[in-house]
Amino acid sequence: xxxxxxxxxxxxxxxxxxxxxxxxxxxxxxxxxxxxxxxxxxxxxxxxxxxxxxxxxxxxxxxxxxxxxxxxxxxxxxxxxxxxxxxxxxxxxxxxxxxxxxxxxxxxxxxxxxxxxxxxxxxxxxxxxxxxxxxxxxxxxxxxxxxxxxxxxxxxxxxxxxxxxxxxxxxxxxxxxxxxxxxxxxxxxxxxxxxxxxxxxxxxxxxxxxxxxxxxxxxxxxxxxxxxxxxxxxxxxxxxxxxxxxxxxxxxxxxxxxxxxxxxxxxxxxxxxxxxxxxxxxxxxxxxxxxxxxxxxxxxxxxxxxxxxxxxxxxxxxxxxxxxxxxxxxxxxxxxxxxxxxxxxxxxxxxxxxxxxxxxxxxxxxxxxxxxxxxxxxxxxxxxxxxxxxxxxxxxxxx
Length: 399
Description:
Layout (H helix, E strand, L loop, with lengths): L6 H12 L2 H9 L5 H29 L3 H4 L1 H43 L4 H46 L15 H13 L5 H5 L5 H30 L4 H7 L5 H28 L5 H18 L6 H24 L13 H17 L9 H25 L1
Helix pairs in contact: 1-6, 1-9, 1-11, 2-7, 2-9, 3-7, 3-9, 5-6, 5-10, 5-11, 5-12, 5-13, 6-9, 6-11, 6-12, 7-13, 11-12, 13-14, 13-15, 14-15
């Protein structure tokens, strides 16, 4: 993945990452709040998530380190191995979730259009096309990705018009409970699922600030569009089935292309970053080959393990990576600890702070706040880091 990337290519890359079935379905989860409160939760959650993504992406742009490599700054070499492994596992999970979602949606379309019913075939085809994406490499795939994302942008407009062309009257009573804080947290948690990836791509930007800004802007716009469409589809159309909405819009066979490439442009980043995380542990296999291996395993999981519920998966990711990056961001931007100390194998004090942050997230999750869980936990973790690490340094200087 050599070569610098322009701000426009970064915008395209991250807009494509955001346009996915998973984002739309997550937006549908907050429908019990209604449209007005749901929109407020989407905007607040995306502002919080976008800010955190920008800070993490800035580290990659400035240091030219991948996300996994950058964790060495705060946790040492062995500490970064632990987080690389955790990242590979969560990315493998996301790969399977995305392939399953894409295959199920494509299957609905082909059943209605051609009477063809075979999710396994679609899962294998999606995996095969992702492998082609990986094989092209970031430099070559950016052109193909740009075309696909342009078409996906048209898709979001058509889908939005289809959803909101209905009279804005709820189709029925919404079941389920959802607090405002929980809705905000769902938005933040979705953004945080990209937190361990963003530096993998911003480290290649031509211009540090603008490259990182347009990366986050691409995700911000694409994700908000999908969340709003998911919310509207649940409230005013009575379905979150993207295939049904596309078919009702008269798109027919075009729906196949739309769903297929929406899945590929999102999942491609997951598998490629899994390869980059593997490289942080060992260089015996290239990031491309490692990414291809993760993609194959993702297809196997998609075929044999029907993962459909991922709300708790999002919270699990948040609990692991929110305190992790709170420590890294604190040390990088406040303590100005911007380089790797090769002599540090593991930073036990930061590992302990991270564990406390994970426990704190899980304990605070049922309680929540109007700003969700991630932001309060990251602030608290950052303060603990300052007190235990920065405070210790000040004590040593004075005494």
